[in-house]
Structure formats: structure tokens, C-alpha cells
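Here is one chain, start to finish.
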Amino acid sequence: MIKRRNTAIQEAVLSILTNKRKAMSQDAILKQINVDADRATVYRVLNRFCQDQIVHKIVADNGKQYFAVCIDCDKNAISPNHFHFRCTKCETIECLPTLVEFTLPDSYLVNEMNCLLIGVCKDCR
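Its structure:
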């Protein structure tokens, strides 16, 4: 892993994601950030965090990107290819600690997955 310089914006973004404990869009992060940061900088920070496997990206069914620090996931046991759940009432997206298992025909190779379940979360039921 490349050693990167830690900045106030990086610290603020990571703090927001860690404290929220659910996936957030870039817009939601920008509304909560307490340092001077523009949209492009926050987007670069989020993508760098994804490259460094600090956070992971979830693409929702509407195409919007969400980012999460997987607090409850054991990084050695749960890969980035785990399920996520989007609540249709409160619109939150959260990581579910469930492995995705599948088989493919020979000669297919999966590089990444996006597993999103959609329904009503335990808090909104």
C-alpha cells in the first residue's frame, strides 16, 4: 500500500463515515463536513479510500454511489463482495455481514460484485 499524507479533509471524511456506521453518498458527506472542501476533493478522497480498501463503494439501484466503512465486517472473513441493504422508507444503505456465494460456468471471471437487497430495514418495520 502506498503511504499517503493525511489531510484534514481525509480525517473529516473518515470520521463522518465511521461515526455514521451506514453508507453515505458524497452529497450527504459534503453536508456534514466541517472543513473547507469542494465536491471534487471529497470525491477524490472517497475514491482513494476505496483504492486503499479503507472504505468500499456501493452502487444503488438508482445509480447513485454510496461509501461505507464496514465497521462490523472482519476484513479477513468478509470480502468487499458482501450484501448491502437499502431501506425504501429511510433510504439508508448498510452492510450485511453475509458472504455471497455463487458458481459461474467455466471461462467466466468476476472482478467485482454489487449485491444490494432492497426492502424495509429493522428500524422502519
